[in-house]
Amino acid sequence: MTTPTPDPVTPEPVTPEPVTPEPAPPEPALRVQGIASGYGDIQVLRSVSVQVWPGRISVLLGSNGAGKTTTLRAVAGLNRVTVGSVQLLGRDVTTMPASERIRMGLGFVMEGKRLFHRRTVEENLLLGGYSKGHSRRALRHRAETMYERFPVLGERKRSRAGELSGGQQQMLAIAQALMAEPRVLLLDEPSAGLAPVIVTQVMAIVEELKIEGLGVLLVEQAAEEAVRIADHVTVLDVGRVVIDRPAREIEDVSVIRSAYLGGRRNRPDTTAPVPPPAEPSGA
Ligand code: ATP
Predict the structure, then answer these.
(1) What whole-number distance in Å separates Cα of residue 282 and Cα of residue 50?
(2) Which mutation among 39, 43, 80, 257 tests ligand 1's pocket best, with the greatest number of atoms within 8 A of CB?
(3) In the list 169, 171, 215, 254, which could disulfide-bond 52, CB 3.0-4.6 Å?
(4) What integer best gives the mean pLDDT of the chain?
(5) Domain count, the chain
């Protein structure tokens, strides 16, 4: 009896796994490239670059006087940019007046909450949306959406802004900026002077805005809280960018803190060339 010779085993053709291409990173909604700016003859910023992506939070850190507010002011069109450029939603706005930038989709919550203190909460909101040229009825409708988001403002809509607590004024300042339907929001130290529980609330609001697709440029002294919600972190020191990287690469905020946020020891050589900005994490 002969054993049958087994059929030659023909290997199954291997179908290659379909390769999913990496999604292209979204275009930055705000691209600040190598700007110099200051006050009169005083140059504060030297070649500062910052980027903000839609639906992402970029955090700008630095010690007092590093140039964070000046950067926001230059982006908003409140300080002249003498070198470099600012692009908003793909358009060069370097020399565009501040009011036009707002119409294009730039929102700005200044440090110290520039509210109209003698006007009511509702009037402050309506004034915030005024630049869009909407009817009063449309503005009132938008104000209603702000009361849904910030119920305390709805409860106090007839109160004067100056009578609100610090945290409520901060909510109002953010709501006022949102009235103009921005796509990029600049927030200058929204947690300044607020109790820790309110800081947590403000950070939660900023995260919500990100989820809704806004690009946020957040300046903060509360570095740990800010980095926790950040997608990208840029650190300024004496008007120059010294760190610029995705937040996931920042392992220890205390290192940044001791080097650049007040501590003057362990400061690395800031004359070294600054690497180009990295793309956002998870993009
Ligand atoms: P802080 O956390 O204290 O707000 P910052 O990083 O926002 O600091 P900026 O307010 O941008 O710093 O100030 C940067 C530099 O510009 C500082 O040296 C400051 O003294 C100077 N400066 C700010 N505002 C003016 C002004 N209106 N006129 C002249 N110099 C100014």
Answers:
(1) 18
(2) 39
(3) 215
(4) 86
(5) 1
